[in-house]
Design goal:
CATH architecture of the largest domain in chain A: Up-down Bundle
Largest sheet of chain A: 4 strands, mixed
CATH topology of the largest domain in chain A: Glutathione S-transferase Yfyf (Class Pi), Chain A, domain 2
Number of domains of chain A: 2
Number of helices of chain A: 9
Oligomer: homodimer
Structural class of chain A: alpha+beta
Order of helices and strands of chain A: EHEEEHHHHHHHH
Shape of chain A: globular
Number of strands of chain A: 4
């Protein structure tokens, strides 16, 4: 049995963790099935068997893995069809692309999404979410959140990806690969929380739609939160 | 015979084009010798045989190539030792890393280096340099140049590369590869013009020194311009 422990909101069908989405996309790419095990931020005991406290955790018939990049590498080693990271230089460069694209989108998306995460999570998770994030950010959630500023930073950040995607359909070239899923997971974080800081008619938007439609064609529609976020928050 | 047509200043030994430096580093990586053919911006007739007007141009025993990335691909195909871009996913990702790292450093370096390029080029090149760059930038050289602002933008731009290089010695992992030379060429543009917007004790600085020392160990010291640039220009 293959189980994916992944973060959910108060609604167990609302999945929004970017790192968990990376793994879902990777499993779908490999053509592998899995059972979803949705957990809340504070359900740490349910993943204690992994020896650490963060999702995603993959339990593949007794083999336990955590961390999205480590899970990609494991999947490539165990299931050799359709490489995600690949080997040697290809894998090294996938990790570098992940680092650079992560740097471009993570802070902008966090500024947009913090008020939305707050709304969708189980009330029992709110104290953990606030204290862990405020410690990491060095400021209050309210001081950090800035949806409008985040949208501007997002557009600036993805500018070189936008140019790249005008010239080929995927980050990894003519077909989607590990680099595509590592970034698309980040964008699904926004998508599932009802935000979309990219334009439908941008190259990035068209790329995201290609990834989304391929996934949904085999795994059904992805649930999005219906959120009312006050403007100028 | 292998000839590299490359940009020089009024001093034919002062080479500063980032794209030409990429090719020098790539040839050295492959263990190949070459004859330098330094030309000025306006010596277009000397490379007319390549069917276009930009350096670098490589004439490899009658095979003519231009554009640094195309030259890397040619070198990998013709001389299979020590791949630069590699094949398949590795090559695709090297091009994406090039695009992203180029975006991070090019404008900041241009803001720092415009006054320096102006000083070192042959006076006969100045009209061409001004008109071609002002057309591309959409403003005067003086309005665009901003060495202090450029240094700040450079440090912000290379932040994710700095983190990456704290964890492994090269962009391409444990040994230098095409991604390293594509970025190092950009930094040699600054270095040869007497500028260094990175700290010696940064991870990026240590990486640059490794690349530089390996090159100089086999090809001798790289000439740097002695430039006096007025502060607050």
């Amino acid at each position: 049995m293959r189980e994916l422990f992944e973060l959910c909101g108060a609604d167990p069908e609302l999945l929004f963790s970017p790192y968990c989405w990376r793994v879902r996309l990777a499993l779908a790419h490999k053509g592998l099935d899995w059972q979803s095990r949705p957990i809340r931020f504070t359900d740490k005991e349910l993943i204690a068997f992994s020896g650490q406290k963060l999702v995603p955790v993959l339990n593949d018939d007794g083999e336990t893995m955590h961390d999205s990049l480590a899970i990609f590498a494991y999947l490539d080693q165990r299931y050799v069809q359709r490489p995600l990271l690949g080997e040697g230089l290809a894998a090294e460069r996938a990790r570098l692309v992940e680092r650079l694209s992560f740097h471009m989108v993570r802070v902008p998306l966090l500024k947009i999404l913090i008020p939305r995460v707050w709304q969708v999570i189980d009330p029992a998770d709110r104290e953990y979410f606030r204290s862990s994030r405020e410690k990491a950010l060095g400021m209050s959630l309210e001081a950090f959140a800035d949806p409008q500023g985040g949208e501007r930073l997002f557009r600036e950040g993805v500018a070189p990806l936008e140019i790249w995607l005008r010239e080929q359909p995927f980050l990894d070239g003519q077909a989607p690969g590990g680099c595509d899923y590592l970034l698309a997971g980040m964008l699904l974080w926004a998508w599932c929380l009802g935000a979309q800081p990219w334009a439908d008619d941008s190259a990035l938007g068209a790329w995201f739609t290609r990834i989304l439609q391929t996934y949904e064609a085999t795994h059904g529609p992805i649930k999005r939160a219906a959120i009312h976020v006050e403007e100028n928050q």
